[in-house]
Amino acid sequence: xxxxxxxxxxxxxxxxxxxxxxxxxxxxxxxxxxxxxxxxxxxxxxxxxxxxxxxxxxxxxxxxxxxxxxxxxxxxxxxxxxxxxxxxxxxxxxxxxxxxxxxxxxxxxxxxxxxxxxxxxxxxxxxxxxxxxxxxxxxxxxxxxxxxxxxxxxxxxxxxxxxxxxxxxxxxxxxxxxxxxxxxxxxxxxxxxxxxxxxxxxxxxxxxxxxxxxxxxxxxxxxxxxxxxxxxxxxxxxxxxxxxxxxxxxxxxxxxxxxxxxxxxxxxxxxxxxxxxxxxxxxxxxxxxxxxxxxxxxxxxxxxxxxxxxxxxxxxxxxxxxxxxxxxxxxxxxxxxxxxxxxxxxxxxxxxxxxxxxxxxxxxxxxxxxxxxxxxxxxxxxxxxxxxxxxxxxxxxxxxxxxxxxxxxxxxxxxxxxxxxxxxxxxxxxxxxxxxxxxxxxxxxxxxxxxxxxxxxxxxxxxxxxxxxxxxxxxxxxxxxxxxxxxxxxxxxxxxxxxxxxxxxxxxxxxxxxxxxxxxxxxxxxxxxxxxxxxxxxxxxxxxxxxxxxxxx
Length: 553
Known about the structure:
The N and C termini lie far apart (about 85 Å). The strands form three sheets. Strands 3-4-5-2-6-7-1-8 form an eight-stranded mixed sheet, sandwiched between helices. Strands 9-17-13-12-10-15-16 form a seven-stranded mixed sheet, sandwiched between helices. A two-stranded antiparallel sheet has the order 11-14. The chain has helices at about 5, 10-25, 30-45, 50-65, 75-85, 90-95, 105-115, 120-125, 145-155, 170-185, 190-195, 250, 255-270, 290-300, 330-340, 345-350, 420-435, 450-460, 475-490, 505-515, 525-540; strands at about 130-135, 165, 200-205, 210, 220-225, 240-245, 280, 305-310, 370, 380-385, 395-400, 400-405, 405-410, 415, 440-445, 465-470, 490-495. Helix 3 packs parallel to helix 5 (about 75-85). The protein folds into three domains: about 1-85, no CATH class; about 110-355, P-loop containing nucleotide triphosphate hydrolases (Rossmann fold, 3-Layer(aba) Sandwich); about 370-540, Nucleotidyltransferase, domain 5. The chain has about 550 residues and is an alpha/beta fold.
């Protein structure tokens, strides 16, 4: 095999031929791996893309072989250094080489961040496969630090370019400036090893600007907060990076303030972009009307735009999406504990990446009547309706109501179940009927309700006197939900939050009720639909409008 000094003078085809022959040899042998590294360096001047592709392949080989051959560690770091200027993943691994493993940001989080496709999406931005990327993750999962590393990589790749970082607060922009300044300037990180020819030209903590390479009016990194007067002061031709433009829940609850924020973004921040400048947005999704929501509405069909949002817990596996090494992540138990102590809407925004339009919420916590204990004595009646489950994400919803006068207390035994096993559905319905001593149950006949009613009636025969009837629904669902909401608010009393757990049927029931909005998309409307059906059921049974009494609450 030729030495590196000998192969630099031959043509690209010959170099690639040497690599091809090396692939036929033992790819676990140290000498083969070293020779492949030499060939990556030799090919780089002729075909950078081919050299990086081969380098990534080599990195995988070294990673697999290093456990059996610890002496490959030096080659591993050499390969990472070769790739780091071009590959974001390798860059993050290499620049933290000298840090204590437990203090490193990326390595403990790498498996999950790559699994979720976040690192690859950021690489796609750098490789000009995307023009717009938005990322929404739970708090504390590392999204801002990831952005700091990303901009540090961008600066090294193109020091003559200039990027703009924007956030809701000057405190956040200062933290970002300090972090990038530290990554690119301190000995803690090996940024200078990756980009040895890139020199720092100036830095200004007051204006929060850092410049690399030659002097330019608009610096390599400029930071600004929402509402700053930016005309003529900042510009970007590489990236407009927006990090949490919404300051918190108060702003998110105000549609006029969200409209103003959109105007600020589109007129002030977005106008700072030059042609071909890309955008990166990292934020908590508070509202469907936030900046990311409006961008998604406009660019959802654009192949050069990607919108990433990940919840706390994987819905398929039930495992945490952010359980990192060395205890720096979050377990399922942690998320469940947080969920128990927060209101449902805020938790879904912060930890589920499910934006809610609060202005359009049909039911709010403040409007609901709650009970800690039931009234003394037996109820006047026990009534229920059942909204049957269709295919997909529908839920079987059965609110069981204990009537005391003109009030209906929602039983803790009520169902909100997404189990697709009909046998389980029938069994659970039967159990509720018997346990609550339900006297009348009306089942929605749509979606096989007739079959369900007949089966359940047979299962409770001899154990309950419940009368089960069916009814086809033809009314527009949204209209039915809205026009009956006021009756529900006046007459239905819900269990106090202390009486149920978030992951229980009642927890899901209340979560779906309190997140139903008349504006924007609604994924789960089964609960408000079932309550509307109950309102109609009671009023039709009485043959008149129910008398409304002054609420004692």
